[in-house]
Design a protein that fits this description.
Order of helices and strands: HHHEEHHEHEHEEEHEHEEEHHEEHEEH
Oligomer: single chain
Strand order of the largest sheet: 3-11-10-9-8-4-5
Shape: globular
Bound molecules: pyridoxal-5'-phosphate
Structural class: alpha/beta
Helix content: 25-40%
Number of helices: 13
Length: 445
């Protein structure tokens, strides 16, 4: 599948004489100091070798001593995932830090098919598209931040944003700069204005304070439900080129877009190799299996993998094999058909939430219909801060929502928003929850 991004790409300046990215200038000292683990290199080597190889090298335990024998996992609409004795032994064993080869290669094919990234054809040094498996996209995000962010660095993002991002970023001691946004995501004009504090020429100077990293959730933002337009992405990408920024495209709701064609991604526009994209299977296959992916320029993904080598070593081989078998059984067509079914479910849920919001909250609140994801971001018109209303009064009435302050950079600033998820409750429950909320709001006024 060739996406609308193809047209777009040709409108960008793809002049190959432009100097290649200097990836080392983005790394923290900790990340730059990481070295490959010699034992992990041997594991990767063993993974690629024929079964005739006799290895006395690794410290791997003997899987014959493990208690699990085999398993058959029934799949709702398709062939079972079978772990025969041999596969089970592999599933229970250590594996390579990039991810198991058959899952990575399946995912690379999918990325190329969906996003057709220009970097797929680049040399490694110029930022060839590389991928690794992570234990949920949260692990990838956290490791990407730790690779790039020093104390005192200026980091750009459009808040309110995912609380897991703030949890990973704020302890790094960076200075988070809030870029204005609306229901269509980050506003390029606002970004331009912020960046105009600096001279782009200073970005390459050692010790410069020019931001080097921009983070955004381009589809169905958590918590706002905002989805960025193609035009905005293109403008933000051009600004990133001017100021030599890396863009972290955190896109776990990409597969939950309610309209087709799906929006072209930053990855699809990445003529320079400055996009680090995180994908997640949490919303479409399972959140508990913890499977996510980092896609980006090889010099940076390699650094993330060095961090993985030194921490988790790899995402569970068992869950990777389970997902890989499912995907190989389905093929891309089967996978995308499954995704269509998931989208249909969430579309109905969203519509149910919107009509309940209309029924109960029209006079006291406002919102935008989200084009992707699983959240409705509701502004209560006459309540300056929702913390007490939600955490005390709503809880008493047995309604659970998230007060908006959780998603802001400074949670002590009053926030009139609440986040409502339409993922788990039935339309009847959603309706009853909003009825109770409307009573509470009226009482509070
Ligand atoms: C915007 C965003 N990024 C990342 C994640 C992490 O997802 P996971 O680690 O399950 O892939 C979430 C989870 O809700 C999210 O909303």
């Amino acid at each position: 599948m060739i996406t609308a991004a193809d047209d777009l790409r040709f409108t960008l300046d793809t002049d190959s004489s432009k100097t290649a990215m200097n990836y080392s200038r983005f790394l923290t000292a900790v990340s730059a100091a990481r070295k490959p683990s010699p034992i992990r290199i041997l594991t990767e080597l063993q993974q690629r070798s024929p079964p005739t190889l006799i290895s006395l090298a690794g410290g791997a335990p003997n899987p014959n001593t493990f208690p699990f024998h085999s398993a058959t996992i029934k799949v709702k609409n398709g062939p079972s995932v079978v772990f025969d004795e041999t596969t089970m032994k592999r599933a229970l064993q250590y594996s390579g830090s990039y991810g198991i080869p058959e899952l990575i290669s399946w995912m690379k094919d999918l990325q190329i098919n969906l996003h057709n990234p220009p970097t797929a054809g680049y040399s490694p040094e110029r930022g060839h598209m590389e991928m690794c498996v992570t234990t949920g996209s949260q692990e990838g995000l956290c490791k990407v931040f730790e690779m790039l962010v020093n104390p005192g660095d200026n980091i750009l993002l459009d808040a309110p944003t995912y609380s897991g991002t703030l949890a990973a970023l704020q302890p790094l001691g960076c200075n988070i700069i809030n870029v204005p946004s609306d229901q269509y995501g980050m506003i390029p004009k606002g970004l331009k204005e912020i960046l105009s504090r600096w001279d782009p020429a200073d970005s390459q100077k050692p010790g410069s304070t020019v931001p080097r990293v921009l983070y955004t959730i381009p589809n169905g933002g958590n918590p706002t439900g905002a989805s960025m337009t193609t035009e905005r992405k293109r403008e933000v990408y051009e600004l990133a080129r001017e100021y030599d920024l890396l863009i972290i495209e955190d896109d776990p709701y990409y597969f939950l877009q309610f309209q087709k064609p799906w929006a072209p991604t930053f990855l699809s526009m990445d003529v320079d190799g400055r996009i680090i994209r995180t994908d997640s299977f949490s919303k479409i296959l399972s959140s508990g299996l913890r499977i996510g992916f980092v896609t980006g320029p090889k010099p940076l993904v390699d650094r993330v993998v060095l961090h993985i080598q030194a921490s988790t070593m790899h995402t569970s081989t068992f869950t990777q094999l389970m997902v890989s078998q499912l995907l190989h059984g389905w093929g891309q067509e089967g996978f995308l058909k499954h995704v269509d079914g998931v989208v249909e479910f969430y579309r109905k849920q969203r519509d149910a939430m919107l009509s309940s919001a209309d029924r109960w909250l029209k006079d006291v609140a406002e919102w935008h219909a989200p084009a992707a994801g699983m959240f409705l971001w509701i502004r209560l018109k006459d309540i300056a801060d929702t913390q007490q209303l939600i955490m005390e009064k709503a809880l008493e009435k047995e309604v659970l929502l998230v007060p908006g302050g959780v998603f802001t950079i400074d949670s002590s600033v009053p926030c009139p928003y609440v986040r409502a998820a339409f993922s788990l409750s039935t339309p009847q429950q959603i309706d009853e929850a909003f009825r109770r909320l409307s009573v509470l709001i009226k009482e509070a006024l």
